[in-house]
Structure formats: C-alpha cells, structure tokens
Write a structure and sequence with these properties.
The complex is a heterotrimer of chains A (about 525), B (about 500) and C (about 100). Chain A has about 525 residues and is of the alpha/beta class. Chain A contains 19 helices and 11 strands. By secondary structure, chain C is mainly alpha-helical. Chain C contains 3 helices and 2 strands; from the N terminus they run ααβαβ. The longest helix of chain C has 18 residues, at about 20-40. The chains are: A alpha/beta (about 525), B alpha+beta (about 500), C mainly alpha (about 100). Strand 2 (about 55) of chain B pairs parallel with strand 1 of chain C. The complex binds magnesium ion and zinc ion (ZN).
Amino acid sequence: MLMSILQRTACELLRSLEAGELLSVELTQACLERIRATDHRVQAFLRVHEASALEQAAAVDARRAKQQSVGRLAGLPVALKDLLCQRGELTTCASRMLADFRPPYDATVVAKLKAADAVLLGRTNMDEFAMGGSTESSAFQVTRNPWDLERTPGGSSGGAAACVAAGMVPLSIGTDTGGSIRQPAGLCGIVGMKPTYGRVSRYGLVAFASSLDQIGPLANSVEDAALLLEVIAGHDPRDSTSLDDPVPAYSTSVNQPLNGLRIGVAKEHFAAGLDTEVEQAVRAAIQVYESLGAKVQEISLPHGKHGVATYYVIAPSEASSNLARYDGAHYGYRTNEQELLQELAAERKILQAAGDQHGLDELDSALVRMYRRTRAEGFGPEVKRRIMLGTYSLSAGYYDAYYLKALKVRRLIRQDFDRAFEQVDLIAGPITASPAFKLGELADDPLSMYLVDLYTVSANLAGIPGLCLPCGQTHSGLPIGLQLQAPILQEERLLRGARMFEQATDWHKLRAKL
Amino acid sequence: MSEPYTIIIGLEVHVQLATASKLFCGCSTKFGAEPNTQTCPVCIGMPGTLPVMNCKALRLALKTAVALHCEIPPDTKWDRKQYYYPDLPKGYQISQYDLPMSSNGSLSIEDTKDRFAPTTVRILRAHLEEDAGKSLHDEVAGKGDSLIDLNRTGTPLLEIVTEPDMRCSAEAAAFLKELKLLLTYLAVSDCNMQEGSLRVDANINLHLETPDGKVATPIVEIKNMNSFRAVERALDYEASRQYCEWQETGRVLGQSPKQTRGWDDEAGVTRAQRGKEESSDYRYFPDPDLVPVSFSPAEIATAQASLGELPAALRARLKSEYNLPAYDADVLVNQGRPVVEYFLAVADACQDGKAASNWVTQDVLRVLKERKLAIEQLPISSASLAELMTHVKSGKLPGSRAREVFQAMVETAVDVNQAMKALGIESVDESELVSLCRQIVAANPKIAADVLSGKQQAVGALVGQAKQSNPNVDPNRIREICLKLIMPES
Amino acid sequence: MAISRQDVEKVAILSRLQLSNEELATMSQQLAQIIGYVDHLAQVDTEGVEPMAHAIERSNILRDDCPQESLSREEALANAPHHNSLGYLVPAVLGE
Ligand SMILES: [Mg+2]
Ligand SMILES: [Zn+2]
C-alpha cells in the first residue's frame, strides 16, 4: 500500500484525493513513514514539519468532506528548499549564519502554495546559500543520492531532488542559479525545471545571485512539474524583475504533443569530456524525438564554452554583495563578543610592546573585528571562496577586466540562443558531462566542481527556461538526464516537448531502490 | 578679500524627498517615531526581500532636476554602493553611480548686500538614493555599545553635487539659501535641517600664488554642519586652518589623501575624523534587483510644466512690473510663495507696488513674526490692507494715524472703516480746516506776531489748539494753513 | 591577472572575513587557479557589445506612494543577535 502510493505521480495522487479514494492524511502519513524509513540514510530533509503537515492535511480532508472549495494542490505534500522564507519557520540556507533565523513573512511562492492548500511537509538540505553542485557544502549534513548512497545527489537543490527520487514526497521546490534544479534532477533521475527568469517571483527567496536565481519545480513526471509550475508562476508586485505576462494552463496543455517540432542539437554539447554512456543515452533520446516526427537539426552555441567563466564572475560578484548583510548586526549569527575583545586586547598589547604604531593604527575596531569574526565563523569555505572571488571581481582595478567583461560575454551567450531559436523550437543535450560522482571526489578541487555546471549555466545567464528529465541509466544503474531548453517564456512548449518524450519512454517510471 | 589665497568650495547636499512611504517599501517616512517602529523586512534588508521603486520619489527628483536646469538622460539605473556600517543593514546603499538621473545643471545666486558679485553655481549631478539609519551612541553611554535605529533607513534622498564654483563662505551660504528656497517653492522637501531632511557636506581647499607658481592645498571634506550659519563658520575656519597648515607643512594637493573633518559648533573648529576602513573602494555595480528607468520627453515636459513661477523669475517680475528695489523683491520672495501672493494682491488693488511692499515687508512681516502667524492667519485681508492704503492716499485717513489703525485691524480683526470709527477717526474737509485755522489765528495775535518775526516753530501751539478742538485734523495740514494765513506772501 | 597573497589579504578585509594564515594560503592558491581559468574571457572579442546586467531586460517598474503597515519593534528585533528594548546593539561605532 505505502509504496504503491508513493509510486504514483502527483497528478495521479491528486485525482485520487479529489475522487475521495485517498485522504491527504493517509498520503501525508505515507510520506512521513517513508521519511522515517529512509531519510536517515539519504539525509534529504533538514527539518520535517510532521505536526503542522498532518494538521494541514486533516484540514483539507475536512473541507473536501464538506464539499467546500479547495486549492489547486489540495492535500498534496510539497517539500521546500531551506532558502525559501516561511513565516515563523527556521530558514537556514544550510548555513551556520542563519541557523536560528525565522522570517516574519512568507516568500511569495510559499504564500501561493499555502493558498493552493498544499501540505508543507518540511525543509530540504542544500549547499550553503545554494553555492555548490553536490550539497556537500551544507553546514548541517551531507545528502546522498538515493540510487547510490556513496554518491552525490547533485546540488545545490540536492535535498529537494533526493526526497522526490526516494519517494518521500511527490513534489518539491528548488532554486536554480547555475543548474541547481536541473543538475540534481538529472543525477537523481527525476524531472526538474528552471523557468524563464522572472516567471516565478523571487520575493522571499534568500538571494545567491539575484540576476540568475530562479525558483522551480522538482517532480516524478513532466505532468507533475507542469502542475506545480502553474501554481507558483505569475507576476508579483514585490519583485521588480518578475514578469507580468499571463500564465498559461501548463497542466492542461502539457499533454498536447507538438506537431512539426524542430529539435536543435548543439555540436559544442558533444565535445571532449562527455561520458560515453551519457552521450549514448542523450543521442538515443534525440532519436526518440525523430521517431516521434520531430525534425532534428545541428546548431551552434559558439560562446557556450565561456559560460562557466562568465558565470563564476557574475554569480560570485552578486553573491559578495547579497551576503554582505550577514555581519552579525541585525540578524543571524554573531561571534562571541568577550572573546573578540580579549583577542583585540591581546593583539594591541603585542603591537604596543613592539612599538608598532602603524600596526596599532591598522588594528581593527571592535565593530570591524565583530564583522570579520562573525563572517569567518558563520560562513563555510565555499561561501567564503565565492565572496572573495566576487569582491575581487568588483574591486577597483579589476571591475572592467572581470565583472564588466563577463556582462558582455553574457550578452553574446544570449545572442547565440536567440540565433539558434530562429531555426529550432527546442534545444536538446546532456545535463552533465557524467553521472553522479562520488561524495568527496571533488571536495578539494573547486574548479573541477565548477566545471560540472558546463551545460547548465548558459540558461541562467541567458534567462531562458530549461528542463531536465530522465533519459537513461548507466550500466552501474545511475540515472542519466536529458536537458531541453526553450526561448524566453516558452515554458509551455518546453513542457509539451518533454512530455512527448516521457510518454514515449519509461525512464521516469524507474524508482531508486532503498 | 585681502587673503593671499582663493578659496575653492564645492557642496554636496542630501535632501529628503516629501513622500509618504520609503523609497523601496511601504514604511512611513514620518520623522520622530519611536526607534525601530517604522521598519519592515524590506528596509531592514532581511534575507529574501526585494526593493520596488516609489514612483513619487522619482517624480519629485525629476521635478527638482528640471528646476535646476539639469540634463535628463534617456535612461538611468541604480547601483549598489558597498560598505559595512551598522546603520546600513544590507551592507550596501542603493544609489546611482555612472548613470545618474540628471547632470549638468545650474543655480544662480546674488547678494543684495553685495558681499559678492552675482554668479552661477554649476550642478555636477543630482541623483536619487536611499537614506541610512541612525547610530545613537550617547543613548547607551558608558556601555561599549551603539544603539541602531533603522526608522530612517530607505527614506528617499536626492543628492545634489555642485562643481567647486564657490569662492567664499558667503557664496556657499547664499547657494544653500537659494537652493532651500527653490526646493520649498517646488514643495519637494520640507528642508528641515534640525530633522535632517536637508544635510550639507562641503569640499574646500585653497589656491595660492607662490614665487614658483600656483599651488593648491589638499581637499578637505567637512561634515556635521547643522545650520547654514555653521556652514559659513566652518568654511571660514577651515580656510584659515588650511592656510596655516600649508605655511607650516607646505603640503599640497596630492601629497596627502583627501581628509574628512567634522565641524564642532561649540568649539568653532573642524576636527579630523577617523576614516572608515577601505571606504575608498565602494565596488559599485548595477543593482540586479531593480530595473532601469527611462523618462519620456512627455514626462520631462510635464515636470517642466509643473514647476510654477520660481524665485529667480519672481524676483525679476517684482522688480520690472512692480518697480520694487532688489532688496524689497528679495525680502518678499524669501518669505515664500504665500507672502508673495499676498503682496501681489495688495499691490494690484492699490496700484502702488512700493507702498504695498513697505506695508508688507515692514508692518505685515512684523506682525507675523510677533504673533508667530502664517500669512494665511493674518487678520487683515490683502483687500482691506489695500483699502487702508487708499484711504491714506486720499487723505481720508491721516498718514500719522495709519499704523494705529493697522494695529487696531490686527487686534480686532475689523476692516479699515470700522477701525477708524472705533478710533473716532473721521476725515475733516478742507473748508472746515480753514475756518478752524482762521478762528485760532485771530484768537492768538501774539503767536501770529512771533511767527511773522521769524519764530516759525511758534506755530506748533496753534496746531495744538486745533487738535484739541478736533482730534481728527491732520496736524501737518493745520500747520500749512496757519502759516499761509499768517504769511500770505511766502 | 595573477592574484598575489597581498591581494588576497586586501580582499579579505574588503569582504570583512578574518582568515587564518592557512586559510589565506589555500585561498590564494585556489583563487589563483579559478582566476587563471576565468582569464580566458579576455580572449573573447566583445568590441561594441553592450553589458548585460539583467537576464530579462525590462524597465520602469514602479509602485505607488502608499504607506503600509510596518513590523512591530518586537517582530523587527526578533532575529537580532543583540538588542535592547529600543533597538539593535553593536560594538561602539567609532570615528563618527
Ligand atoms: Mg550619497
Ligand atoms: Zn520598510
């Protein structure tokens, strides 16, 4: 019974809930049991809101029983990545800095989910402040890939992907700044989507890189992703960058196949470094499209190879600014002030003894030392690395060579896509060069870790929507993902195109055995 | 000026714009609330929050820029100015860097006391930014902590930066007065310096002639000046301080970094301030949370049309159309638009600009000052002041008693005729006056003789008797008539 | 552009991060490696290309000037690491 519930997609579950064949409390209990049974191994959740989830579920069941009107997701459990502000609930960004932070407000996405009567099941693990591709930079725990517990689920939305892949919850919300939804979805064998920048409000999403961050759905099927996107998308007057274009009925149009579909394949996506099993799976997927009558055409994205370099200038630059607010003054962690004052006194004594006047003049004030200790203790190594990198890129003398240069290359990357989409409707390719890597494998090698984002960062830089869905497995049984990309605001096309593949294949039906 | 140097002064003025809500959130901008009671997740920079620009702040900024004859670029954007300070909760201030909303403007100043020749101060730029909060050090005196109040955080500010075009403290003060007057006429800010809605920093250095050519002293920025008077005193002090320092050290521009000094108003000196660490590198970059703004020619035209008649134009009109001396025009315009309106009404009604100006600048302003009234609260309408003036002209009201009547009108809020009645003033016609004088002269042959023999002042006694028999007579007129009767030939 | 240890120390101060000597060493080496990679951007011809600061370029997004409810002082200070009944407390602000 339990697994059979959790084998089903969110849309199937919703139909059962609406038909009265299934109670939200039963479904929520099933999720909670599954979490109890498996999450001590997967470590996807930072916090499970058992009591409040069961309350919400019971309330929805009661309203259904009374034939009262309920929201679009009434009774469906949804997990939230731990950087979406939820009024009164811990919102830690997997950082020591925000270990005790409880926002006094709901993110717009959270408010929309509440209005849709979703059951907010809990908060999922992530790379600290969403900076990473393996969920290893979390200050609290390492999440494991349900398909192989020795391997990474990807990141930064590793918890969000793992909990869906492990059947703990049918739907979850993640964020994608350089691939943080699509890459873990690919490595965990589920569906993940980054909408057009501005399609979903960022209000209440704790910023990593404001011009790249976008919220999106993770699910077991394209249909489920369409449903969840339809609920969270839309204009928000509290986000100046949110788009006021109408939201199509994704969940209904998703099942209409696209006639005369033109699929673009970028030759740059199949260059050296691409794992052969991955290449075979992706090429096979493209053949599936051909067999469905799609016209496949080679395109070129010449500036894509500069994506990672461009991204690792722009994202850290914005991050260094967005994370300046964590200084121990107004919220979050603050260093121990007694120790701080003792430290300064000791340093002053030494400098005085040495008669080092310059040193004394340069010595931090208590305030500055409070900032520096607070940030040194509150942030992990990856976050510090990116703050340093971004501060450097924006600092006097380097701005033009790095930040400004990157903004120009960014436009070239965008123009590549604009040109490509004059000839094709969707671009298909790999999501990562290789399947899930072993935990710790890239721990001391930040650059190699950054290069994992090769196929994903361009969509964030260009603002276009991208989606990843399962398209195969390695002989060792690791999922392989197919990435599809569409022009600005063409989510509908993207979802319909992805659904065509899903209906023609069974990869999305495979579940991790735990 | 006899000093062996030229003073070079540039000003940086921050003006709080008169909006109801903050620049990027809905919090109130009211002054004087309890600490930290006017903040929200957005203005305290809570994780996840985003700014959305207040359109009124933008409109007021544009109006001011247009009034300062600034160029308005087609597009403008907002940048993050990054530094760490506890009154700046986001760790950056949203401001404008390389694409300000306006630049290259000007404001002309002149001095009615002729301490300097009329001149035009160029405006380098005027841009829109957010205010920071306050650090209240003394509040927690003794303890090693500062208390932070974020009520002011996010209040819209217009930063107006001048070129270094002022050559003496009087020019700087005049510029500030004229700017404040302009902003008041535009109603874009209440310009209350005590409440910090208008704040001034000054950059100053000296240019000197030396045997081996021109040199300049290092530029100093002066802060903490809380009145125009303080600005004037601080600049005078700093000029002589820099001269002495130069004579001692000989240090010139470029040999030491730009210094910031705070003005101590009690001590009357400027003191070096401890520089913020690394404040030199603000790492400006475009704020990704805000989108650019572009002003259409129509919007600029609308702003232009909304300005109304501004001080300079008004002064000119008072001089040309009402032939007032520059001094009167200045006094009137400096009182603000309502007083000018009152003056115009009086002048138009009585057809005598100068006389109207005398009444308004002397008597009306005195009453307003004594009774702390706004012109709208003055008990005398412009119409009845004009009527009073016509009565004086026609001789209906003896000039000698006009002020008495004016005072009665102020105190009892009646019109001129009622006031004259109350004071028992009725106009006496000429024939009555003449016959009265005949009687008195006839009755006082001795005095008439004295007058004839040259003691003209003796006629005063006759005037006295005339006033006794009828208090409404105009003493000057009596004197004239009596003299004529006694000495017809003169 | 190679990044020196001095650069890294200066950036650490700008970033308000206190780094131990070991951290500075690792950081210098890792930043050098990353910046070395990023330096490839210099070879891209961006002559006449407009910088692109926003993923989607729109303009004139404004709100009306209507005041809204603020947080109560208690709510505002609820997350403050150190505060009294009036506001946030921080080590003495010197110099101004
Ligand atoms: Mg400023
Ligand atoms: Zn606010």
